[in-house]
Amino acid sequence: MTDWPRLADRQWVQETNKRVKAQETHRSSLVGVESTDENALHSLDSTLKKTTAFMKKLKSLSAASIPSLIEELSRLNLSKFVEEMAAGITETKLKPSDVIPIVDLCVAIASRYPKFSELILTEIKKCLPLKRADKISNPAKLRIDVRLLCELILCGVVGKEGLQTLGATLSYICITDKGEHLNVGLICSLCRPVGWQIAGIVPSPEGNEGVSIEQGDLEMSEAITPEHRKVVNDLFTNYHTGLIRHLEKACAVMNVVQKKVKRHERTRGDATVEEKAELETARAEYERLKALASELSSALGVQMVELKEEPSDNEEDEMAAMEMDKALAEGHVSLWPDDESRLFYENLIDIRNIVPRSLYKESEERTIQENELKTSVDDIDVDGLEAEPAEREGDVDVGEKEENAAELDRPKTPPSPAQFNEDMTSATDASMITSEEIKQLAQKFFLNLDHLVNRDTTDQCALDFVSNLNTKSYRKKLIKVLYGVPSSRLDLLPFYARLVASLSPVMPDLTTELSTMLIKQFREFVQRCGQERVEEKIKCVMFIGELVKFGVIPRAEALSCLRQLVYDFRGHSVDMVCAMIETAGFYLYRNSDSHPKMKIILDVVQKKKERIKDVRHVMLIDNAFFACIPPADSAAARRAQAEPPLMIFIRHLIVDINEHNVNTNIKCIRRLAWDDETVASWCLKYLTSPWLLPYSNLLHLASAVAGLQGLTYYDWISTYVIDACQEMIRISLEVPGLFNQKAIASACYLGELYNYSVCDTPVIYKVLYQIISFPETDPLAWQEFYRVRMVCELLNTIADFFQTGRARRKMDYFLTYFHRFYWMKREQWKVNVVMVEMPGAEEAGDNAVIEPPRFPADVEAEYRECMRHMRKSAPLPKDLAEAENAVEQIEQQLKEKLALASGSADEEEEEEDERKVLDRTLHEIAEEDGEEYGSDSERPPAIIAEDDADEKVCVHVEKPVIQPEDEEFMRQLDRMLADQVKVVPQQTSVAAAANPSVDMTVPAAVRNRFQRQICFEDSPGGSKNAAENSKPSMKVSLMARGKGNKLVLKTVSIEESALHEAWKKEREREEVERADIKRVTLGHTARIFAEEEQEMRQQIYSHSRFN
Fold first, then answer.
1. From CA 883, how far away is CA 873, in angstroms rounded?
2. Potential cystine with 883: which of 412, 482, 546, 819 (Cβ 3.0-4.6 Å)?
3. Are 614 and 576 in contact (CB under 8 A)?
4. How high is the pLDDT of residue 53?
5. Which parts form a coiled-coil structure per UniProt (predicted)?
6. pTM exceeds 0.70
7. Are 591 and 555 in contact (CB under 8 A)?
8. Backbone CA torsion sign across 495, 498, 503, 504
9. Contact assessment for residue 837 and residue 853, using Cβ atoms and an 8 Å cutoff
10. How far apart are the first and last CA of the chain?
């Protein structure tokens, strides 16, 4: 309605411009009027005869008498009759043509008597409906009053208060008339004369002689602001939209009735009188609404919508039903998927021929009225299911609401489920047999109901109940047990339905009560969306579907249930539709009478699936669709697409791994042909797919990878698995919404790998910081919290290893940034959800207080639980500002440490140079051949001082760590030297030869000097002689006895030989073996700890369950 240029009537344009100029003239004449000029009034005629005559003329106003009244007004003093003049003008019966002259008279009176404006507005308010409780008693007078009020506002007689009164009146007219649309004529009477001034409306030309006009071709009144015009325009537009919706609904109702009448005329020859009368009523309502919509569309200047009055005949549906019936008759298709199902649902036990009639004579008679379920498939209307419901409370159409309301007036209907349960718990039947044998049989029977697993046991239960327990009280108890089947035992529903179908011929009341209770429960679930668990809803629709397949509940009722669910296809309705289609969809699709309707419902479900974003719901819809219409693929094609047996075996080894078979599976995986690229690719595919395993088995898969890492030729597998996990997390961040579950599983898997020492701490920190720092490009990312969930899952997995020391400090840094990330996401959600999901004021009501939506409780609970696991006593930030301050403090501390480290860099370089000089001086210390010193007391003072200096220098040098192998080597060297000393010449004294075990102990000072030489031997600052000698050699100090039986330490250079190389290789082999034993031992220890913990949990669970 704001597009220019527009088509308009030329005469209307001229009249509108003329009228706007006249209104502006009146406004300018009233601008200077502030108070009454008393001197001027005293000079006028105020005789009672003339003033009384004037007031009589005023009460019988007409367009012809107004000019004379205006002339007399200028000669009379009517200051005492201002209130009577205002009341007389508003009470006079006026015609639409009298409004403009009346407005001229009001302008003349207001220019002479300023208080007239307030008085006439008060009188007009008395005639206008301003509250919702007001009623319109005289619509014709209301048209004149609203038109008069608009003209008075535009001419300046009434000001801002009058504009508020007009807004309240128009709001009442448009908002309170959404159902009947009785005020269309009133709105149309305003749009043509004053629609442009008050709402910017250009009416459509009445004939074909319209002219194109621009916005500047029309004069605009300054009495109403553009904002007020927009408000009035929106009111009229919304009213017009509601009328069009009402018209479309009436058209749909008429089409349905007309389709039914035509179908009956084609199939039966003629329709009933009631159906024809219903069609005439629907057509009359449609014609009335169409005329009103056409009139209002012309007045508002919008194009009238085109509606299809004549619906297409239902010939296509009839042809489809005939084709299905022919295919069933010829045997091309079957009503059941296999022979076993056909026998289960069709071959029921005939209790009448097995049990004597005396046992079921009482229960065979129907004592309650049969439930009024829909039995005709033709009565189910599946048209209009593709449209989205306008309002939540309008999910069920008017016919269904009337039907539900009419159920309250039915005579002696079965009780509701709640009332039934109360009656069962409170009532006691006098006919209850008190025999202990009967009680035992009843107890055994009801216990056996939980173990119905085949047809034979179900049929035997039916026979036992009819033979032994066929009393009123036990029949009620059986209904209660069947109705209250647990939602976790959905496998019992087919057998319970077979039991009910078997008992139906001899116990019609049981069938009637149970089916009525289920249908009522279903309707309660549909009307009260989201208040019950979805498991109960799924159980209800599956039970109804099973009873439909046995013929206990008509197929038309099942189609009606599906229609109600598909109409509002969202939330739990999706789960209920999928469960019902999987249960009875195949049966309804293959029946000739329900096939056309079921086909339409399936098509609508497929179309509405495109609007669903939940991956789980999409998967459920696909499964239900293919369960109803299986794909027509051949057995050969399925065999061609079958997986190789070796691939299935590999998937079994990895996917089915648990605490009991982890060691066996590791051995089998190790023995696979890893040199084959196909086998290796299969193994790596499943080793890097943690989402295929249950969450509790991820630690066992990580244990298997750790076990493979400890083997010599399989250590590369762990690196591949870690890279794959990181890659999946990275992909989920780059393409959000597609791999969220896989990424969360990969994060948990990576944490378990860290627990088994497969990956290092830097990998964990890299992933954590990547998750919270990767940029979000999706504009709807504020709705997703999978990053928070991913971080929480990873932290919960690795929390025990970051509680002390340096790891705890680094983790505290990350948690500070994670707190900020969490509160940033929370603030984004808070800002966006207010703009997107906040309900409007009109929907909430006038006095309703609109509360903003609450942050998702599951995300907040997971975050707080993770923080309690990581830091039990640490306080959490309460808002984003507090989290930002914590990050700033951490960064400031790190900057200060970095500044201190950079300031001491020069000092460290100087110390490093001093160390190099000291290294060179220490290398120059060498023992001379023939040097003999037994102890420090026998050495020269210079050398002792030099040793002291060396000891002082060593304070600045890192003390070498002597390995156990080096100590063993020193002991062997001492023993070898001792053996060499024992071999002396024959000239040695008898006393010396008599001592077979000479104990030679290396002095402490010599040992220290020897250790310093070995420690600095390989440093870069060696002497020139050592650098010139390029031939590799190893210096060894030998201790012997010199003159006077004194110890002599000599340095000998030994070249590398085969003995030295063999010793070196043996040492490397021992190190590798020791590392392998260490890894295997740690892996076994972790697995034993996990097994003990699992056994403890099972014992606790068993003990608690037993108690």
1. 17
2. 819
3. no
4. 82
5. 272-299, 880-928
6. no
7. yes
8. positive
9. yes
10. 74
Sign of CA dihedral 1007, 1008, 1013, 1015: positive
- Find how far residue 210's CA is from the centre of its chain: 54
Instruction: Give the model's pLDDT for residue 112.
Output: 83
Q: Is the peptide bond before 853 cis (omega within 30 degrees of 0)?
A: no
CA dihedral 136, 137, 143, 148 (to 10 degrees): -100
- Nearest CA among 623, 590, 631, 632 for reference residue 605: 623
Number of Cβ within 10 Å of residue 210's Cβ equals 15
Judge whether 693 and 701 are in contact, CB under 8 Å.
yes
Dig out the tokens for 766 from the structure.
Answer: 């890299």
In sequence order, the 6+-apart residues with CB closer than 8 A to the CB of 279 are: 254, 257, 258, 261
Long-range interactions of 123-128: CB distance < 8 A, separation 24+:
123/86, 123/87, 123/89, 123/90, 123/91, 124/90, 124/148, 124/149, 124/152, 124/165, 125/165, 126/90, 127/90, 128/165, 128/168, 128/169
Residues 6+ apart with CB under 8 A from 264: 270, 271, 272, 275
Angstrom distance (rounded) from CA 85 to CA 76: 13
Backbone angles phi, psi at 809, to 5 degrees: -65, -45
Cα three-residue angle 372-373-378, rounded to 5 degrees: 120
Q: What pLDDT shows up at residue 632?
A: 58
Q: Please report the pLDDT score of residue 928 as a whole number.
A: 37
Close Cβ partners of 386 (under 8 Å, ≥ 6 residues apart)? 604, 607, 608
Residue type, 637: A
Q: Do 448 and 461 form a contact (C-beta atoms < 8 A)?
A: yes
User: Which stretches of the chain score pLDDT less than 50?
Assistant: 1, 311-313, 390-434, 633-640, 839, 841-843, 845-846, 848, 906, 910-959, 984-998, 1011-1030, 1106-1107
Q: Which residue has the tokens 């047996």?
A: 645
Interacting residues of 112 by C-beta distance below 8 A, sequence separation 6+: 36, 73, 74
Q: pLDDT value at position 681?
A: 92
